[in-house]
Protein backbone atom coordinates (compact mmCIF):
# COMPACT_ATOMS: atom_id res chain seq x y z
CA UNK A 1 0.00 0.00 0.00
CA UNK A 2 1.50 3.34 -1.03
CA UNK A 3 1.14 6.76 0.69
CA UNK A 4 -1.38 7.77 -1.95
CA UNK A 5 -3.45 4.73 -1.07
CA UNK A 6 -3.48 5.73 2.62
CA UNK A 7 -4.43 9.33 1.84
CA UNK A 8 -7.30 8.11 -0.32
CA UNK A 9 -8.46 6.04 2.60
CA UNK A 10 -8.49 9.10 4.82
CA UNK A 11 -11.04 10.87 2.61
CA UNK A 12 -13.78 8.53 3.77
CA UNK A 13 -14.12 6.77 0.46
CA UNK A 14 -14.00 2.99 0.13
CA UNK A 15 -10.44 1.84 0.78
CA UNK A 16 -9.19 -0.56 -1.86
CA UNK A 17 -5.81 -1.67 -3.07
CA UNK A 18 -5.36 -0.28 -6.62
CA UNK A 19 -4.44 -2.64 -9.40
CA UNK A 20 -1.28 -1.37 -11.12
CA UNK A 21 -1.52 -0.84 -14.85
CA UNK A 22 1.17 -3.41 -15.52
CA UNK A 23 -0.25 -6.09 -13.23
CA UNK A 24 -1.52 -8.26 -16.05
CA UNK A 25 1.76 -7.89 -17.90
CA UNK A 26 3.69 -8.83 -14.76
CA UNK A 27 1.53 -11.91 -14.23
CA UNK A 28 2.03 -12.92 -17.86
CA UNK A 29 5.80 -12.56 -17.49
CA UNK A 30 5.75 -14.66 -14.35
CA UNK A 31 3.76 -17.41 -16.08
CA UNK A 32 6.02 -17.32 -19.13
CA UNK A 33 9.19 -17.37 -17.04
CA UNK A 34 7.89 -20.25 -14.94
CA UNK A 35 6.92 -22.27 -18.01
CA UNK A 36 10.35 -21.68 -19.56
CA UNK A 37 11.87 -23.22 -16.43
CA UNK A 38 9.32 -26.01 -16.00
CA UNK A 39 9.53 -27.39 -19.54
CA UNK A 40 13.29 -28.16 -19.45
CA UNK A 41 12.93 -29.55 -15.91
CA UNK A 42 10.14 -31.82 -17.12
CA UNK A 43 12.13 -33.03 -20.12
CA UNK A 44 15.26 -33.72 -18.07
CA UNK A 45 13.26 -35.42 -15.29
CA UNK A 46 11.41 -37.70 -17.68
CA UNK A 47 14.65 -38.53 -19.49
CA UNK A 48 16.25 -39.55 -16.19
CA UNK A 49 13.14 -41.55 -15.31
CA UNK A 50 13.33 -43.46 -18.60
CA UNK A 51 17.08 -44.04 -18.40
CA UNK A 52 16.77 -45.43 -14.87
CA UNK A 53 14.32 -48.00 -16.17
CA UNK A 54 16.51 -48.82 -19.16
CA UNK A 55 19.65 -49.07 -17.01
CA UNK A 56 17.98 -51.44 -14.55
CA UNK A 57 18.38 -54.31 -17.03
CA UNK A 58 15.00 -55.71 -16.03
CA UNK A 59 13.19 -57.74 -18.65
CA UNK A 60 9.62 -59.08 -18.54
CA UNK A 61 10.40 -62.21 -20.56
CA UNK A 62 11.69 -64.29 -17.66
CA UNK A 63 8.75 -63.40 -15.44
CA UNK A 64 6.12 -63.98 -18.12
CA UNK A 65 7.50 -67.09 -19.83
CA UNK A 66 9.11 -68.68 -16.78
CA UNK A 67 12.31 -70.66 -16.51
CA UNK A 68 11.46 -72.78 -19.55
CA UNK A 69 11.39 -69.80 -21.91
CA UNK A 70 12.94 -70.40 -25.32
CA UNK A 71 14.94 -67.74 -27.21
CA UNK A 72 12.05 -67.42 -29.65
CA UNK A 73 9.61 -66.75 -26.79
CA UNK A 74 11.92 -64.16 -25.23
CA UNK A 75 12.36 -62.43 -28.61
CA UNK A 76 8.59 -62.36 -29.13
CA UNK A 77 7.95 -60.83 -25.69
CA UNK A 78 10.68 -58.22 -26.18
CA UNK A 79 9.18 -57.29 -29.55
CA UNK A 80 5.71 -57.02 -27.97
CA UNK A 81 6.94 -54.40 -25.51
CA UNK A 82 9.32 -52.71 -27.94
CA UNK A 83 12.41 -53.80 -26.00
CA UNK A 84 14.12 -55.03 -29.16
CA UNK A 85 14.58 -51.45 -30.42
CA UNK A 86 17.57 -49.20 -29.69
CA UNK A 87 17.34 -47.27 -26.41
CA UNK A 88 16.98 -43.90 -28.15
CA UNK A 89 14.05 -45.17 -30.21
CA UNK A 90 12.44 -46.68 -27.11
CA UNK A 91 12.69 -43.25 -25.46
CA UNK A 92 11.18 -41.44 -28.44
CA UNK A 93 8.27 -43.93 -28.58
CA UNK A 94 7.77 -43.74 -24.81
CA UNK A 95 7.86 -39.94 -24.80
CA UNK A 96 5.41 -39.71 -27.72
CA UNK A 97 2.98 -42.06 -26.02
CA UNK A 98 3.33 -40.28 -22.68
CA UNK A 99 2.60 -36.85 -24.16
CA UNK A 100 -0.58 -38.28 -25.66
CA UNK A 101 -1.62 -39.65 -22.25
CA UNK A 102 -0.57 -43.26 -22.79
CA UNK A 103 1.79 -44.42 -20.04
CA UNK A 104 2.05 -47.94 -21.44
CA UNK A 105 0.87 -51.23 -19.97
CA UNK A 106 2.04 -53.33 -17.06
CA UNK A 107 4.50 -55.98 -18.08
CA UNK A 108 2.80 -58.66 -16.05
CA UNK A 109 -0.89 -57.80 -15.74
CA UNK A 110 -1.18 -56.15 -19.20
CA UNK A 111 -3.43 -53.52 -17.59
CA UNK A 112 -2.84 -49.92 -18.79
CA UNK A 113 -0.59 -48.03 -16.37
CA UNK A 114 -2.84 -44.96 -16.42
CA UNK A 115 -5.75 -47.11 -15.27
CA UNK A 116 -3.74 -48.61 -12.41
CA UNK A 117 -2.53 -45.18 -11.31
CA UNK A 118 -6.03 -43.72 -11.56
CA UNK A 119 -7.36 -46.40 -9.19
CA UNK A 120 -4.70 -45.65 -6.58
CA UNK A 121 -4.21 -41.92 -7.00
CA UNK A 122 -7.37 -41.01 -5.08
CA UNK A 123 -5.93 -42.55 -1.90
CA UNK A 124 -2.68 -40.57 -2.04
CA UNK A 125 -4.51 -37.42 -3.12
CA UNK A 126 -6.85 -37.76 -0.14
CA UNK A 127 -3.98 -38.04 2.33
CA UNK A 128 -1.86 -35.26 0.80
CA UNK A 129 -4.86 -33.01 0.11
CA UNK A 130 -6.29 -33.17 3.63
CA UNK A 131 -2.78 -32.76 5.06
CA UNK A 132 -2.30 -29.65 2.92
CA UNK A 133 -5.62 -28.17 4.08
CA UNK A 134 -4.73 -28.83 7.73
CA UNK A 135 -1.27 -27.37 7.19
CA UNK A 136 -2.62 -24.21 5.57
CA UNK A 137 -5.45 -23.60 8.05
CA UNK A 138 -3.46 -24.26 11.23
CA UNK A 139 -0.21 -22.83 9.86
CA UNK A 140 -1.80 -19.55 8.79
CA UNK A 141 -3.84 -19.33 12.00
CA UNK A 142 -0.88 -19.94 14.30
CA UNK A 143 1.39 -17.67 12.27
CA UNK A 144 -1.08 -14.78 12.41
CA UNK A 145 -1.66 -15.21 16.15
CA UNK A 146 2.07 -15.36 16.87
CA UNK A 147 2.69 -12.18 14.84
CA UNK A 148 -0.22 -10.23 16.31
CA UNK A 149 0.72 -11.15 19.89
CA UNK A 150 4.48 -10.89 19.33
CA UNK A 151 6.47 -11.42 22.50
CA UNK A 152 3.49 -12.73 24.52
CA UNK A 153 3.12 -16.12 26.15
CA UNK A 154 0.95 -17.21 23.23
CA UNK A 155 3.74 -16.29 20.80
CA UNK A 156 6.29 -18.22 22.85
CA UNK A 157 3.95 -21.22 23.11
CA UNK A 158 3.39 -21.28 19.32
CA UNK A 159 7.12 -20.93 18.70
CA UNK A 160 7.84 -23.82 21.07
CA UNK A 161 5.19 -25.97 19.39
CA UNK A 162 6.52 -25.30 15.89
CA UNK A 163 10.07 -26.05 17.03
CA UNK A 164 9.02 -29.43 18.42
CA UNK A 165 6.61 -30.32 15.58
CA UNK A 166 9.19 -29.66 12.89
CA UNK A 167 11.54 -32.26 14.40
CA UNK A 168 9.00 -35.10 14.57
CA UNK A 169 9.04 -37.53 11.61
CA UNK A 170 5.54 -38.36 10.31
CA UNK A 171 5.91 -42.07 11.09
CA UNK A 172 6.63 -41.26 14.75
CA UNK A 173 3.53 -39.06 14.93
CA UNK A 174 1.55 -41.84 13.22
CA UNK A 175 2.57 -44.37 15.87
CA UNK A 176 1.53 -41.97 18.62
CA UNK A 177 -1.84 -41.26 16.99
CA UNK A 178 -2.54 -44.97 16.49
CA UNK A 179 -1.67 -45.77 20.12
CA UNK A 180 -3.90 -42.99 21.46
CA UNK A 181 -6.92 -42.88 19.14
CA UNK A 182 -7.07 -46.47 17.84
CA UNK A 183 -5.59 -48.69 20.54
CA UNK A 184 -6.34 -46.57 23.60
CA UNK A 185 -9.59 -44.70 22.92
CA UNK A 186 -10.93 -46.83 20.03
CA UNK A 187 -12.16 -43.68 18.32
CA UNK A 188 -10.57 -44.09 14.88
CA UNK A 189 -9.70 -47.07 12.66
CA UNK A 190 -6.01 -47.64 12.09
CA UNK A 191 -6.04 -49.25 8.63
CA UNK A 192 -7.95 -49.45 5.36
CA UNK A 193 -9.54 -47.07 2.88
CA UNK A 194 -13.08 -46.30 1.72
CA UNK A 195 -13.85 -43.86 -1.14
CA UNK A 196 -15.58 -40.65 0.02
CA UNK A 197 -18.49 -41.14 -2.38
CA UNK A 198 -19.17 -44.52 -0.80
CA UNK A 199 -19.10 -43.46 2.87
CA UNK A 200 -17.81 -39.96 3.60
CA UNK A 201 -17.76 -40.37 7.37
CA UNK A 202 -15.79 -43.59 7.16
CA UNK A 203 -13.41 -42.04 4.61
CA UNK A 204 -12.75 -39.08 6.90
CA UNK A 205 -12.14 -41.31 9.91
CA UNK A 206 -9.59 -43.31 7.92
CA UNK A 207 -7.85 -40.30 6.39
CA UNK A 208 -7.64 -37.94 9.35
CA UNK A 209 -4.80 -39.63 11.29
CA UNK A 210 -2.37 -40.03 8.38
CA UNK A 211 -3.23 -36.50 7.24
CA UNK A 212 -2.55 -35.03 10.70
CA UNK A 213 0.74 -36.92 10.95
CA UNK A 214 1.80 -35.68 7.53
CA UNK A 215 0.72 -32.08 8.18
CA UNK A 216 2.69 -31.47 11.40
CA UNK A 217 5.82 -30.31 9.63
CA UNK A 218 3.80 -28.20 7.18
CA UNK A 219 1.94 -26.46 10.01
CA UNK A 220 5.19 -25.70 11.83
CA UNK A 221 7.05 -24.29 8.83
CA UNK A 222 4.18 -22.20 7.49
CA UNK A 223 3.48 -20.76 10.95
CA UNK A 224 7.12 -19.81 11.51
CA UNK A 225 7.61 -18.28 8.07
CA UNK A 226 4.31 -16.40 8.16
CA UNK A 227 5.11 -15.01 11.61
CA UNK A 228 8.47 -13.79 10.32
CA UNK A 229 6.89 -12.11 7.29
CA UNK A 230 4.05 -10.51 9.24
CA UNK A 231 6.25 -9.20 12.04
CA UNK A 232 8.47 -7.47 9.49
CA UNK A 233 5.47 -6.14 7.55
CA UNK A 234 3.64 -4.79 10.59
CA UNK A 235 6.68 -2.60 11.34
CA UNK A 236 6.46 -0.87 7.96
CA UNK A 237 5.66 2.86 7.78
CA UNK A 238 2.48 2.36 5.77
CA UNK A 239 0.99 0.34 8.63
CA UNK A 240 1.69 3.20 11.07
CA UNK A 241 0.13 5.65 8.64
CA UNK A 242 -2.94 3.47 8.22
CA UNK A 243 -3.41 3.26 11.99
CA UNK A 244 -3.14 7.04 12.33
CA UNK A 245 -5.83 7.49 9.67
CA UNK A 246 -8.21 5.22 11.53
CA UNK A 247 -8.17 2.15 9.32
CA UNK A 248 -9.30 -0.87 11.31
CA UNK A 249 -6.64 -3.31 12.55
CA UNK A 250 -8.38 -6.28 10.95
CA UNK A 251 -8.32 -4.60 7.56
CA UNK A 252 -4.68 -3.63 7.95
CA UNK A 253 -3.74 -7.16 8.97
CA UNK A 254 -5.75 -9.29 6.56
CA UNK A 255 -6.01 -7.04 3.50
CA UNK A 256 -2.52 -5.54 3.42
CA UNK A 257 0.03 -6.92 5.88
CA UNK A 258 -0.94 -10.55 5.30
CA UNK A 259 -0.86 -10.07 1.56
CA UNK A 260 2.57 -8.46 1.57
CA UNK A 261 4.05 -10.66 4.29
CA UNK A 262 3.04 -14.03 2.90
CA UNK A 263 6.10 -14.43 0.67
CA UNK A 264 8.21 -16.63 2.97
CA UNK A 265 5.22 -18.86 3.75
CA UNK A 266 4.35 -19.28 0.06
CA UNK A 267 7.96 -20.17 -0.74
CA UNK A 268 8.07 -22.83 1.97
CA UNK A 269 4.69 -24.18 0.80
CA UNK A 270 6.13 -24.77 -2.67
CA UNK A 271 9.00 -26.70 -1.11
CA UNK A 272 6.67 -28.78 1.07
CA UNK A 273 4.51 -30.13 -1.76
CA UNK A 274 7.06 -32.79 -2.83
CA UNK A 275 7.44 -33.68 0.85
CA UNK A 276 3.69 -34.28 1.10
CA UNK A 277 3.78 -36.60 -1.91
CA UNK A 278 6.72 -38.57 -0.53
CA UNK A 279 5.22 -38.62 2.95
CA UNK A 280 1.96 -40.01 1.60
CA UNK A 281 3.88 -43.12 0.54
CA UNK A 282 5.01 -43.68 4.14
CA UNK A 283 1.51 -43.04 5.47
CA UNK A 284 0.04 -45.62 3.08
CA UNK A 285 2.40 -48.20 4.49
CA UNK A 286 1.76 -47.21 8.10
CA UNK A 287 -2.04 -47.32 7.70
CA UNK A 288 -2.26 -50.18 5.15
CA UNK A 289 -3.80 -48.09 2.37
CA UNK A 290 -3.70 -49.20 -1.29
CA UNK A 291 -2.38 -45.93 -2.62
CA UNK A 292 -0.19 -44.47 -5.34
CA UNK A 293 3.02 -44.91 -3.36
CA UNK A 294 2.40 -48.54 -2.52
CA UNK A 295 1.68 -49.21 -6.19
CA UNK A 296 5.09 -47.77 -7.11
CA UNK A 297 6.89 -49.65 -4.32
CA UNK A 298 5.23 -53.00 -5.08
CA UNK A 299 5.88 -52.57 -8.81
CA UNK A 300 9.54 -51.79 -8.16
CA UNK A 301 9.88 -54.98 -6.11
CA UNK A 302 8.27 -56.99 -8.94
CA UNK A 303 10.39 -55.27 -11.58
CA UNK A 304 7.37 -53.84 -13.41
CA UNK A 305 9.24 -50.93 -14.99
CA UNK A 306 6.34 -49.26 -16.92
CA UNK A 307 4.35 -48.78 -13.70
CA UNK A 308 7.34 -47.35 -11.86
CA UNK A 309 8.05 -44.96 -14.73
CA UNK A 310 4.38 -43.96 -14.91
CA UNK A 311 4.13 -43.17 -11.21
CA UNK A 312 7.31 -41.08 -11.37
CA UNK A 313 6.00 -39.12 -14.35
CA UNK A 314 2.70 -38.38 -12.60
CA UNK A 315 4.57 -37.25 -9.48
CA UNK A 316 6.85 -35.00 -11.56
CA UNK A 317 3.89 -33.40 -13.36
CA UNK A 318 2.04 -32.81 -10.08
CA UNK A 319 5.05 -31.18 -8.38
CA UNK A 320 5.77 -28.93 -11.36
CA UNK A 321 2.11 -27.90 -11.64
CA UNK A 322 1.95 -27.01 -7.94
CA UNK A 323 5.12 -24.94 -8.24
CA UNK A 324 3.61 -23.01 -11.15
CA UNK A 325 0.55 -22.27 -9.00
CA UNK A 326 2.73 -21.11 -6.09
CA UNK A 327 4.78 -18.81 -8.34
CA UNK A 328 1.64 -17.26 -9.80
CA UNK A 329 0.16 -16.85 -6.32
CA UNK A 330 3.29 -15.00 -5.18
CA UNK A 331 3.10 -12.61 -8.11
CA UNK A 332 -0.61 -11.93 -7.48
CA UNK A 333 -0.49 -11.60 -3.69
CA UNK A 334 2.60 -9.43 -3.40
CA UNK A 335 2.46 -6.62 -5.96
CA UNK A 336 2.99 -3.98 -3.29
CA UNK A 337 6.14 -5.67 -2.03
CA UNK A 338 7.53 -5.85 -5.57
CA UNK A 339 6.81 -2.17 -6.15
CA UNK A 340 8.39 -1.18 -2.86
CA UNK A 341 11.51 -3.27 -3.61
Automatic annotation (TrEMBL):
The chain crosses the membrane at residues 30-52, 121-149, 161-188, 200-220, 266-287, 307-329. PANTHER family: DIPEPTIDE TRANSPORT SYSTEM PERMEASE PROTEIN DPPB-RELATED. Keywords: Cell membrane, Membrane, Transmembrane, Transmembrane helix, Transport. Belongs to the binding-protein-dependent transport system permease family. Its main location: membrane. It comes from Rhodococcus wratislaviensis (Tsukamurella wratislaviensis). It is a multi-pass membrane protein. GO terms for biological process: transmembrane transport. It is found in: Cell membrane. InterPro entries: BPD_transp_1_N, MetI-like, MetI-like_sf. Pfam families: BPD_transp_1, BPD_transp_1_N. One of its GO terms (cellular component) is plasma membrane. Residues 121-326 form the ABC transmembrane type-1 domain. SUPFAM superfamilies: MetI-like (SSF161098). This is ABC transmembrane type-1 domain-containing protein.
